[in-house]
Structures are given as C-alpha cells and as structure tokens.
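A favour, since you know our structure tokens better than I do. Would you make up a two-line entry for one protein for me to read? Write everything out right here, beneath this request.
=====
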Amino acid sequence: MDIQPAARHLVTIAATGRSFRCAEDSHVLAAMEQSSCRDIPVGCRNGGCGACKVRVTSGRYHTGKMNRAVISAQDEAESRVLACKTYPQGDLTVEVLGRVWQPERAAQAGFFSYVPPAAAS
C-alpha cells in the first residue's frame, strides 16, 4: 500500500481492528477506499444517503455539511457522522453504523426498478 506522507492519521474500524491512513484534507471514506479496506458501506459519496454513517468513538475530527435527513443535530452531538464528510485531526476509531443496501427501498424511492428474487424466475 502506497502511503503518502500527508496521510498521517490512523483510522481504525472498531469491530474488525482494520486500519488505514487518512490525511487531514481527505475524508475518511475516500481514504478507506484508497486503502482497499471495505468496512464502511459506500453510497453516494456526497453526504446525502447515509450509507457511510459511523460513530467516532475516539479521536478529533471536523465535518463538512451533512444532510439533516440523514444525520440529525442530535446524531452529530453524539459523534454520529458520515464518513464521506469527516476529516481527521488526529487518529480516529470508528464504529460502523451505515445501513445495509436494501434494493426494495431504493426501488420505492425511484432509484431503479426492482424485481424480487422469487419473481425473477
């Protein structure tokens, strides 16, 4: 793995113990993807879907603007944030809270047509 000198903060996934490096000017989700780690779910990558929701259990960070439909002010006060909008200011430990992809819900929201597996045969 090619680590840039600027990628100095260690981000650790609490449940798995896996970790990756993240620079202060990179968000946690991008650094995770660049490291080939796959522990945080990936969705829209811009703060709108909530797939990458995490709770920071230790460490300092700052966030960009997050969709209040996905992260409430209460969530944010309790260190629940979106990895795609979270920038480390030191080493972090995160607990993954992101939702699991549910094709039925995505179809209901109009993202695409969904045919349940039983009906597909």
Summary: The longest helix spans residues 28-34. Residues 9-119 form a domain with the Ubiquitin-like (UB roll) fold (CATH 3.10.20.30). The mean pLDDT is 84. The chain has one domain: 9-119.
